Records
---
Amino acid sequence: MMMKFVMEFPAHPQSQKMTVAAFRVAEKKGWMAKASEWSQFYVDQFNPTGDNLLEMLVLASFYHEQVGLYDKAIANYKRIKKEFKADGLKPNYRNLFEQSQIMLEMLEKGIVDPEKQSEYLMRKSGMDTATVVAEPAA
């Protein structure tokens, strides 16, 4: 209901807040497709800047990945790479930036499965994946 209003009246003074509220509801309810759509709508429609832009691009990318929209996730991660520099960011946002660039690297290589991503990260860090033993299920 909120997003229907926002889509019809994006210039309304409350549309930006309503989009964030709708996105957060979708996030909490596990509506991955809506979270993907609405977080990207927020970025595209309201042109956030600075830390807010970085955070929303990462969130949109995460939800794009969850629903298989890898091209959209890659585009956002590339935008992050273009618009931000790790050195100029606060520590928490620097971590977001660095994680986004690792995700970009993996997605560009076609590594989308979480288990394969873990293996890739272990190999990249020098860990021998053959010696890693999973904990038995409780």
---
Amino acid sequence: MSKSLRALRAVIPQQFQHEHGSISVDAVIWIPIYAVMTSLIMDVALMLDGQARATRILQDSNRLISTGFLDSASEVRDEAEERLDHISPNATVETSVNGDVVTTVAVIPASDLDAIGFLYSFAEVDITVSATHLIEL
């Protein structure tokens, strides 16, 4: 056996016994996974927050016609669209009055509510929010 082959055989087992740099390898593997999970959680949380704010806007708009501040379904729709514009400029709002009940439905693209947009699975999802109130007057 040659001298260089013996030296190589002595060095190779030593390399497998040392764990220098294992933390760097772990970081390279885990940090991207944590980043993806964090962005998913942030996007979903912001969508839920947008849904809650939209629900509040629809309830407030319905309450305006319920208490007599607004007179027609079109006024309620316009009020809701105007207030939803800062949350989602692409939101569509429909309002109907059936007897003593006013119902407002808003459809908001989820892509308007996410911050990062890292996950494309939410790009085509629409969030539907509705509110129904009894007209008091």
---
Amino acid sequence: MPHLHTNGHSVPAGQIRVLYVGDDLALIRFLRGTFREPAYHVVSCPDRGSAEMFIESDIRYQLFIFDHEMRHRAAFDLVRLVRSLKHRKRLLAIVVGGQLESSLIQFTHAAGGDEYVEKANGFSSIRKVVEQFLLNS
């Protein structure tokens, strides 16, 4: 079941919506603590099936973050799904993981992802990349 982080109110039109797909609770806490409401709305989704429903829906998102360490290692497949959908193909999609290897960077780009980012140093690299992408979008 997806973990919606909401207070029951509708999402304001100018709010940046981020979908994190994975089950890293420390990363979820970091994302929600760093990218706070009302400017941001972080939705977390721990499984592939729910993620596919969110991605295929008409819910407005500006950024997708896929955890390479999620169950079934579906991050690259989900990036490909984002790129295959007309209403999603130009949105930002990053993959995060515990290792920084050139093959993971290559897989991310081959799938259509914008960036592969290592989960290290208190997630500081993730923060930097997300802020950079959102400023340039």
---
Amino acid sequence: MTDPTFASVSQHALDLLDTLAQKLGTTAEHLWVVLCRQAPVSAGAELFMILLMAALAATMINRAMAYNKKLATLRRESSYKGIVDDQALALGLLVGASIITTLATLVTCAVCCTDIAAGFFNPEYWALDKVLTTIRGR
């Protein structure tokens, strides 16, 4: 027994694929194959962006730690308090930016992890999800 809602959504998805295929001068079957081949490409792009964000966050944290060491040395050696205060403010801003970048990386990873996994390991599900998302967006 098929759910009537599922049947209507499935038919709408097929109609959407057929319409798009006609506009592109191809068949819905070919369009489906192309869409399934696109899944690992999109997953790879999302994974690359997450890795890039993680590298940026790691670099910022590394720079903050190095800056903190420099600040500690200045505090011991400097008699001019204004330099140390300016350095401390800059360190605070760098740490704040590092925290924001790290949180953005974690949120992006949490949001995109299912798309990445589906794109690499189940491209048919990824393709169906994209078609159904497009239908829901209309």
